[in-house]
Amino acid sequence: MSVAACPPSSEQSRQHAYVQAAAIMGQCCSKGAGAAADDAAAPDAKAEAPSRAASNGGQERPSASSSAAPAAGTNNKQAVAASPSGGRASTGTSSSKPPGPLGAVLGRPMEDVRAAYSMGKELGRGQFGVTHLCTHKASGEKLACKTIAKRKLATKEDVEDVRREVQIMHHLSGQPNVVSLRGAYEDKHNVHLVMELCAGGELFDRIIAKGQYTERAAASLLRTIVQIVHTCHAMGVMHRDIKPENFLLQSKAEDAPLKATDFGLSVFFKEGEVLRDIVGSAYYIAPEVLKRRYGPEADIWSVGVMLYIFLAGVPPFWAENENGIFTAILRGQLDLSSEPWPHISPGAKDLVRKMLHINPKERLTAFQVLNHPWIKEDGDAPDTPLDNVVLNRLKQFRAMNQFKKAALRIIAGCLSEEEITGLKEMFKNIDKDNSGTITLEELKNGLAKHGPKLSDGELQQLMEAADADGNGLIDYDEFVTATVHMNKLDREEHLYTAFQYFDKDNSGYITREELEQALKEQGLYDAEKIKEVISDADSDNDGRIDYSEFVAMMRKGTAGAEAMNKKRRDIVLE
Q: Which residue out of 158, 241, 538, 546 is catalytically annotated?
């Protein structure tokens, strides 16, 4: 299918950005401004259906943030709202009204996003909808609401794209450089995605604003972007629309983190799976995508194109129209001799070649890119690859006491299908024999794919931590409980559900006897450690645990949640 170009005003804007970027780098863009103007369009392609790349890319330059305040649009199966006074709360949806009819897109009760959020100015507009600034009424937090018009979801594929986007954003929730989804709502006419607000603008805007640009700066930017891709791939997600416009800065602060956004074309993938639909933005599409036979290596190609642009100010494959662009991509002939390439270091050129290798099997993986000498040259920035996501979560789970593990198991049971779809795929990828359980050997092989190898002793300890029933195997429920990201604990209704489970007599307190009973039910009781578990949570030493103490225990040591929430509160729009 042909790729629709952006309107002339967008082309002129992008041309201006590229020319400025090239000038700042002190480089002569020998290919001319015409190439930059063509790249400005960043046309999008999708096979046999209207592309959502333009709608999700141009739109939503800003996106959304999560805080500890309970959201009306949470996606748990049965939300329980906590009473401010600590008393019992009713069970049901986030509203006291009976649930509405099921929405055709998200497949759950329809609700009014304006009940929890007030809408502000328009932030961006795309083919499928519009993004507005919004404010969470209860907390005053500034967020972004991406509204997708249901009438524009013309095909079944369009509907599935939106549904999958929500699932993937839930799956990636908690990753520091990925825009977080606060809630998803559906009403009669629209789907609303409330997301973290990124008020710092696009990546290129920051480059231009700095007034100078070096290879070291390019390496630092690339490192962050590749770390994001590495995390996505480790979690079984392929982005499929990587381009500079989809990386935003959280705020205007000098040290604001870079955030990946727009997962509208992203998919879950399994190792060895071959994808065939053509999606993405023309200048960044890998040759194997055009051949309709590709895997996660296509994301690395797209990042390689970004690196080329960072260094040269123009895309590596360009033409006056999309067919010409695609022809150039399929030829794969890199120009590393024209200006400014004679002045670019050999290390940078080596990395560009290896990321833009025409054969995806010969192309570097994200893990290998992070270990390339050029990207590690900046000693002031972190240059070590991210550990495997599952490994990090298992380690965190292992360090918890039995009380916290039992509570997390209750919370895991509250999560909706869309929140744990990614974990289900991860479990399937590790469970190679499809037995429904993970053996020690399968765990070892699964964790070794994307990170450092572990000793047999370390593996055994992680296995024992996740294996609640002690049968030497990790079943699906045990896996979800051990690997669900701890940011889910920030949801008040999930915490309160767990508290109610332990508070057997509804007194508002968890006693030693109630805790013992609950831990026995969960198969986590250890008589020798029960006193330690109580003292860990009982901050006022009255021999029992109230709701505030329970929440404090659950959030203690949870991946810098307090610091993250503080940063989000500091976001101010000018």
A: 241
Q: Do residue 504 and residue 397 come from a single domain?
A: yes
d(CA 506, CA 499): 10
> Of 489 and 202, which is predicted with more confidence?
202
- This prediction has a pTM of 0.56
Residue 160 inside a domain? The answer is yes
Annotation: binding site for ATP: 150
Write out pLDDT tens, residues 400-426.
566 777 787 777 777 776 667 777 777
- Residues belonging to the binding site are 150
- Dihedral, 248, 253, 254, 259 alpha carbons, nearest 10: -20
Q: What pLDDT, in 10s, does the model give residues 440-487?
A: 888 888 776 645 566 677 677 777 777 776 778 888 877 877 776 555
Question: Would you call 490 a catalytic residue per the annotation?
Answer: no
Percent of the chain with pLDDT over 70: 67
- Residue 84 covered by a domain: yes
Q: Of 167, 195, 223, which residue is a domain's last?
A: 195
Same domain, 278 and 322: yes
Domain limits at 348?
201-370
CA distance 384 to 388: 12
